[in-house]
Specification:
Shape: elongated
Helix content: 40-55%
Structural class: alpha/beta
Number of helices: 10
Bound molecules: uridine-5'-diphosphate, magnesium ion
Radius of gyration: 25 Å
């Protein structure tokens, strides 16, 4: 019998976890598969961990938990789940019921057919989301698909059922700066997209502010595209050539017309513009250098301080 691993990152989710656990277990039991649910408590401050311990006490064969020593972020939580899951298939699901468990049987059937390695979900609406957020998200996907070779689908969720081969490929990408939407696209494999209508959070509230989403988008660009660096280089070349032309023009003007004092206002404007562009370019370089810096430190992705999984695995 096939085994399915469900990985659930949870950060302050005490309100929704009981509903989630009930619903997902119900679906999995109806599926004639062996299963495990790995809850990753991402340094929650509320009763999340104690709820997870109760689940594990009642059904330790199927309910696992890993508790982090602090909040490491959803990306680290997903990675911990992938590294420690033992299923033939694995899926990530949000604890807030935004990923409908009812889709699981269909996803599993499609993979069992053998035509696909991964069944992924995509929201075709963003109903219930602030319009500014939807607009910015659409712009982000439009941009990233132009400048990166990791194909990222607009509205794609992290909720996807993957074959073991794909899970191993994702684990093999053990970079510290993780951007899973890019990683899933980068590893390739035959992916089936299952669209569904957006579901709002069952309880509790979203952990993402607009600013955090902006930083996340920037991470996605820097991690999966070198286009900003190419743009900076091209800009530098263009400006150097342009200044050579200007120098020649100015020398000729001085020799022919003798009126070099005029025009200092425009001079200041040009200096300000160039200064601004230089700082922007340095900033872009800095983004990449900071990523190199974090990778070179080789820090662990997460620190687990409690779990009911025997000898919990780590990549570094
Ligand atoms: N999450 C996490 N660590 C974090 C932030 C979020 O593990 O630092 C989990 C959270 O508990 C939930 C999932 O990631 O299961 C998605 O978070 P959320 O619903 O807040 O994001 P949204 O759906 O609003 O994008
Ligand atoms: Mg959510």
């Amino acid at each position: 019998m096939d085994k399915i691993s469900i990985i659930v990152p949870a950060y302050n989710e005490e309100e929704v976890l009981p509903i989630f656990d009930y619903e997902v277990t119900k679906v999995l039991k109806s599926m004639e598969v062996d299963y495990e649910i790995i809850y990753v408590d991402d340094g929650s401050h509320d009763g999340t961990l104690s709820i997870l311990k109760v689940f594990a006490e009642k059904d330790s064969d199927h309910k696992k938990y890993i508790s982090f020593s602090r909040n490491f972020g959803k990306e680290s939580a997903m990675f911990a789940g992938f590294v420690n899951c033992s299923g033939d298939y694995a899926a990530v699901m949000d604890a807030d019921m935004q990923d409908p468990p009812a889709l699981l049987p269909e996803m599993y059937e499609k993979l069992k057919g053998g035509d696909y390695d991964c069944a992924a979900t995509r929201r075709y609406t963003r109903k219930g989301e602030p319009p500014v957020r939807s607009f910015l998200a659409h712009r982000f996907y439009h941009l990233i698909n132009k400048i990166s070779d990791a194909n990222m689908v607009d509205g794609a969720r992290d909720f996807r059922l993957m074959r073991r081969e794909m899970v191993d490929a994702v684990i093999a990408m053990d970079e510290y700066n993780r951007f899973s939407k890019g990683i899933f696209g980068w590893v390739g494999f035959r992916t089936l997209w299952i669209p569904y209508e957006n579901v709002e959070r069952a309880a509790g509230r979203s952990k993402w502010s607009l600013w955090e989403l902006f930083k996340y988008a920037l991470d996605g660009i820097v991690n999966f595209s070198q286009t900003p660096l190419h743009m900076v280089s091209s800009l530098g070349i263009f400006m150097t050539l342009f200044s050579f032309v200007m120098i020649i023009v100015i020398i000729i003007r001085q020799l022919v017309f003798h009126n070099s004092v005029a025009g200092w206002t425009s001079m200041v404007c040009v200096m300000l513009l160039i200064g601004g562009i230089q700082i922007l370019c340095l900033g872009i370089m800095g983004q990449y250098i900071s990523k190199i810096y974090m990778e070179s430190k080789n820090r662990p992705h997460y620190i687990a301080n409690e779990s009911n999984i025997k000898d919990i695995k780590k990549i570094r």
